[in-house]
Amino acid sequence: MTKARIDTPHGLARAELHCAPEGRAGLLLGHGAGGGIDAPDLVAAVRGATAAGVHVALVEQPYRVAGRRAPAPARQLDTAWLTVAEHLSALWFDDLPLVFGGRSSGARVACRTADQGEAVGVLCLAFPVHPPGKPEKTRQPELDAVAVPTLVLQGESDPFGRPAGGHLREIVTLPGDHSLKRELPAISRTVEEWLDRILRPLG
Length: 203
Fold this sequence. Notes:
Elements: E1 2-8, E2 11-18, E3 25-30, H1 40-51, E4 54-60, H2 62-65, H3 74-91, E5 98-103, H4 105-113, E6 121-125, H5 140-144, E7 150-155, E8 169-174, H6 184-199
Parallel strand pairs: 3-4, 3-5, 5-6, 6-7, 7-8
Antiparallel strand pairs: 1-2, 2-4
Helix pairs in contact: 1-6, 3-4
Domain KANL3/Tex30 alpha/beta hydrolase-like: 25-163
InterPro entries: AB_hydrolase_fold, KANL3/Tex30_Abhydrolase, NSL3/Tex30
Protein name: KANL3/Tex30 alpha/beta hydrolase-like domain-containing protein
């Protein structure tokens, strides 16, 4: 398996490459706040993406590489992510369109950086619309700011809420909670179909 270590302004990040036989795009996937790149829904998304002919890089943020559980501030996460995206675009995904994505906190990073990173799509697994029990502290504007096709896969009983649909944004609800562990084959299938659909016009 191919891996890379990338220096960012906020420490060392790591990326793990999963290749499709013939890559038509690159998908960068980030982990949740306290989790890693081995989360079941991320693994399922990798299977779906590679089946759609998309190379995938699973990205570990510098705070996780350094062994910390508590996430870095949003600005640091975004800066590190964009640094990794720029590096991997040249290293692994030369001349390929990029899709940003991730689970939970990683989905928020993907949304916030999609425009600057020139992503052609955003994949959100378990987007945390608000902290549990605090719907007034909504992060819906982060989703609303994304101007490219977006897929959100959300558990029906997710305590972090359910995002609203919108122009270019598809919401798919699945049985289960924030972990999205119950319907892994459905995640793979949905991701594969969505990627094939949004990438088809790009040739």
